[in-house]
Amino acid sequence: MRAPIGDFDAATPAPDCLDELTIPVADAVRHWGGSVPAGQILYVDTDPEWADTAVFVEHYGRDLLEKSANCVVVAGRRGGDTTLAACVVLSTTRVDVNGVVRRQLGARKASFAAMDTAVGETGMEYGGITPIGLPAAWPVLVDSAVVDLPWVLVGSGRRRGKLLVPGKAFAELPGAVVLDGLGV
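-> structure tokens emitted (184 positions)
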């Protein structure tokens, strides 16, 4: 199957290649329940050496820069409590951690989660974390610009491979909250 965006050799419906995904991502695809059918979530094989956005778009298509999203794990703290959440923003923006995220989480302080925390809590590889398959209790903060795109390139849970997902599917993820201005 041809990928709807980017210059990839092939795109495979995610339910047909669960072995290429981490356990939490594969489980999320297996139990998918949104209005977008799971078969519309596509997996594309990519070289992990080219996983970073700037290098990635050089190899797989410059048009992907405006169609790619990053998923980062943040930690909001208030008193002795810490809330982990994911933020999904276009790769051309950065997460407004100290403004939008802090207020949304009701935190006194918010910051990016430590790499070992992000990897340990998600069961995914650093540099490949995706909002699909995150712990069910987590808020998943999604910039409205991501939801508005027809197709979005996002991590697959591993540094090798990416997912191509219809933008509106992000609004239906467990714990999803769509926010204007999350990416600045």
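DSSP finds five helices and nine strands in the chain.
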